[in-house]
## 1
Amino acid sequence: MKQLLRSIYEQAWLQMDRPTQHAWLSLLLAPHHGVPLLSLQIWSGLGAQALQAALEQLLRLNLVERLGHAEEMRLRLHSSVRDFLHEKAVEQRQSPLDQDNIFQKILFQAIEDVTNRIQGAGDTVTGEEGEQILQFLDYALAWPSLWSATQALLLAAAPKMSDVSYRAVWAGCIERGITQCQFYGDTCAEATLLFQLGRLQQLQAQYQAAQTSLTKSAELYRDVGDNRDYAAAINRLAFIARRQRQYSVAKELVDRARPLLSEDDQELDVNYFVRGSIALDEEDGALAEQYYRQALAICQRMADRPRIAQRCWNIGLALFHQKKYTEAIVYYDQSLDLYNEVDDPRNQAILLMNKGVALIEVGQPEQALPWLQKAYQGLHEVQDPLNIAKVAVNLGITSRLLQQWGEAERFLQSAVQQWVELGSSKSEINARIELAIVFIRQAQYTKAVAELKSAKQLLSQIKDDPAHPALASEVSKHLMEIHAA
């Protein structure tokens, strides 16, 4: 059957005029939900009348499918036709004759179209644009003669393609692009793609891979004399060092990057942010607030609303660490309002968690619970394992305060397992202490002692962490409480 269909399609192809072949082959780039006429006209390079005539013939032969009507109309291929046209595209890529490369011309026009659209867009691409970019690049990266246009699309899309639903596929595209850069000796583009790959790996908590990508990016930027982007790569390496609790390394890196950035450079915001985050980790909430406010001032000067939202959030965290819980909630709410405008579900979910935790601290666990539940659901939707573990701990604490013992155990046991998988001894210790408290409140002392002993064994792994004394004290306090009982 497949061979019969291929024979029918081949015969139809041979009997078509050139414009109809252009229109038909252009639809190979259409997503599963179809493509509007305007995009098809741009990709095919046909005038309105020529395209209309070509589509009438293709519809009459049942070689394309029409969805919707009038202005909402979209067109797409049947799956069997797509397989045939894919073979045609591959054949044309292998053909040495320019006049046979219909698909090359179509692909070039499609790449230019989407590149122009995303260059003038916001900080992220739409779902449809992301799907198109991935589809176009899948073909284009295998087409050497299109490298100039392909490179432009990669560089334009790279800062805007962090959507969790296609991160792995996008990382693969960037890696293929890096290989092409190396082949063509395109050092500047290679440095930029390595930087974006590192950012993507950082978002996925793949810190070792991110460190490798960003280190190579920094070296290339330094080699070509691009001090500003060298500083940007160094800032990201500092962020990773801070995540890995390598504070002396992180401080050295931000100090190295700072002199390379001008006072009006938005990258200075990242530098202050990392400094503030280091201060927060070192339990200096006041210093963290100072750095975060400096970062906020830069973002406000740039009128960068997504980053303003982030910095308001950071200030809220710094205030929280100073036990200024009511003020922290004010900044969390400001940040939430801004995130509602920019459609950032991951950060919205984390902020909901932070607000819930602040409400716990002001003695309002009933009000905290719905915020934490929304956060838990949202973080699962965006597949953020680190923050899922954090909110699970806080749901466990809230459930304990509300004497919902079964829920408290379930959330905290889940959190312990997640921290084990994530390799965070400090967070695992904290979760085990909280689980022990739940068992103590139910007079299940044997279970509580088991958790506290496990936590005590882990303390040696965080002896240089600023939180070590407090956690060690908590373990000892609850063991003594059990002994007294």
## 2
Amino acid sequence: MLQRHALLTIPILLSVLAAGSAQAQTSARHQVNVSIPSVLRLSLPSTGDASPSQVDVGVHVDVDGASTTVTPGSSRLAILANTSWTLNAHVEGAQNGLGLAYSLDGGSFLRLHSYDHAVTSGAATGGWRDLELAYRADASGLADGGYDVTVVYTLTQP
């Protein structure tokens, strides 16, 4: 009788252990973290130039007496961002008193300097966001001729 009782105890004990094991498996907790990297892209669609952070625009100014002609007269930039961003600009090259200014999307003209300053800023764009930048020059007192500068646009995360 003792042997039969021992044989019955083993299957019951195995059933209890299996049930406890199954219960432990269903109550396990997992933590999943998803990390999405920041995306900042700056593009000059007219040339196909695209960069993570910088685009250069060559600007030529012809001075003929009191008249000035700026080429290109404007540039279209495109920004793609999934986070907040700031577009900065500065001018490089021999300015020789040339007062190059820009206007963002038809707003007031602001002078470009040899150091970075904020042109505009924003939040995630939800796709490509186009910006139109027009140029004009104040060539008062400059000799007739051609003047070349580069406008450098830099996209940063504040």
## 3
Amino acid sequence: MPRRTRLFIDKLSFTLDVEEIHKASVIRAFEVEEFDRVVERISNFSSGLLKQYQRAYKFAITADHDVTFQIEPRVERGRNSEHASVRRRFLRVEWNPSKSRSAGRESNQMLFALFERCLPSYSVERLLQTMNLTRIDLAFDVHGVSIDSLEVCASPLRKMNTRRTFEPDGRISSMEFGKPTSDRYLLVYNKTLERHLRTQPISTAGRPYIARRIPCTRFELRLHDLGGIDNLFTQSNPFEIFTVRSIGTIGLDASDHESAFFHDACLRRGPYAALSCITNRRTRTHYSLAVRESEPPPWWEPSSIWGELQEAVVAALS
């Protein structure tokens, strides 16, 4: 039986302004934390964290996950002006709340204690009022559902780039809608395969092992440059842009052996692999339309998913 998890925040990044009189004290506070080996200063410019900021630190919130802090933005010069201008806020923070939550409430408490030691007049309420959201990844997993059994598409009213990635055996491994840097970007991927490839090399020999595992599909919606956190709650539901259909509900004539073979191929290899094997253009169009007219799965309810947003934010920041 398919089971959808509650909505959660997979990644969160935000910037904060610091008053001029407090900037030096914030820098000194992080230097003290570095001396006490609470945080580790990043000196490797190739990491990318020092491209736009002069200082960067990482705080190990779990054994395999760090919170990154970028401090004191580098000065940029305007194209039409000889005067230097700083365009970025003084402090940038990025971390994965879902990983810290999975390690227990103590992980978040350690992070918030660090905020309290380093930031002037810190409180969760003040943080929520002053943070500028630069990126938030809203995600959920569907256990017991293979990505091969789904047809996902964006509304034709939204012009979004679409890209699908396939495995060597023709199975689909991910679907992308939009660009990773655009204001809205949806990534749907085979979470079971992704977990396996973290520790195992990519090889065709490992695919049968993956096929025997309980399938899991991850939906990850990335939102960029939202501004204040209030804008997150007042915007329209971004999940409503997308349509999800279940291949198992394709309305084809079961008495037609070709239709039956196509249906079985969809369930085994996914609709895109099955369609790629049909050489006749008219037949391929007929089956493609049948896939697009299949029914949405019961767990795909955009209004219910979006209704879990406040719960997800509270879980990430508590």
